[in-house]
Amino acid sequence: MIVSSYPYWWLALPLLLLPWWWHRQKRQRLKAEALATARFLPAAEPQQLRIWQWRDRLLLVVRCLLLVALLAWLAATILPWRGDTVLLDHGADPAWAQQQIDAAGMAQAQRLDLPEQPLHWLAAHEREWRAAARVLIVGRAERIAMPAHPPQFAHAVTLKTTSGASAAAASTLPPQEIVLATTPERAPLWRALLAAFASAGSAPGQSIQPLRVVEIPGPASSLIIWDRPEAAPANWQAPHWWHGMQVSAPSGLAAARALSVNGIKLQYTDTARGRVWTSDVFPPRDAEAAHALYESWQQLQPAAAPPYGLASQQWASAVPVSASVAEDQPARWLAYLLLALFMIERILSHARRN
After folding, report:
1. Domain count along the chain
2. Do 198 and 214 lie in a common domain?
3. Is 35 among the domain residues?
4. Residue 294's domain spans which residues?
């Protein structure tokens, strides 16, 4: 199987029309012999006709195959061109990052933006670096997840990380969007509940994503609190719904599953518009019930744990550069095929002329 490293070369496939156009433009002059009475006739230019013979069609096929093989070889072959390179996280402290770059002696090296998964990206694109090139990764520790196994590279890779930006990153989390649809009489109770959520997550050593209360759901809405007598609009969707007890039960809630978390009895059922929750504590009447409801919500909808940051370290070249070129073998046999097609094309062209 041929794996294209530069698939954009295949956009040049319309070049296959060139051999066909070239062959259609070929003319073969008819042989004309002068007659004795030709001097009495007006002069006429020799005529040309398109003459297709079997060797012409074969030559056209070979030339088309030659172009296809050339594009495949260009798409599967990488010639290393990168030298010393710095993968820089622009979210890190600029003064600290420049200090690390100067200390490594790579002030004049090429700089690239740090990709999402730097180690995986570097392993996939390592063919682009020359044999003696060095790579320096400078960024925040939380941007570089710790791999399950020690990575191995064909080039010397140095990693410099800092963990000073973790607190700032936690404080800049986007707010969690909650849709509140209730009656004016019960709105103060629900808003007090949401305020209790914020205070419940502000304990020492514990962080909570900020809450934003809206009236109409959007793509970022994670929870809809529906506490009205009428049914919710059909186009409202969210991963989770909280229904007040006085609201008529939605379809399918009769077969809801029950569970008890932190002393709170909950019922839930999965619908096409999200998971619907009901409880007799909606909305809670005191701070203790609000705190227990918050803890239950966090247990039932845990946030994604951040990856373990990778500390500063250095990896020496452990894999030969030739072994890191995963597509070296396909490119080689494509080169042989290209050479064979070129020889066949030259032979047919010579036979056609003679």
Report:
1. 3
2. yes
3. no
4. 174-300
pLDDT above 70 as % of the chain = 69
**Do the beta carbons of residue 194 and residue 223 sit within 8 Å?**
no
Q: Which two tokens stand for residue 345?
A: 């094309």
Phi, psi of 336 (to 5 degrees): -65, -40
Lowest mean pLDDT among 65-74, 131-140, 172-181, 266-275: 172-181
Name the residue among 248, 218, 216, 244 with its Cα closest to residue 231. 248
Same domain, 182 and 232: yes
Same domain as 288, residue 229: yes
| Residues 120 and 151 reside in one and the same domain | yes
What's the pLDDT score for residue 42? 74
C-alpha 68/C-alpha 78 separation (Å) is: 17
Dist. CA 59–CA 29, nearest whole Å: 20
Which is more confidently placed, 292 or 78? 292
Cα distances (angstroms) measured from residue 121 to each of 125, 128, 233: 6, 12, 45
> Based on C-alpha coordinates, what's the Rg of the chain?
36
| Closest of 273, 279, 274, 270 to residue 297, by C-alpha | 279
Query: How far is the C-alpha of 242 from the C-alpha of 278, rounded, in Å?
Result: 6
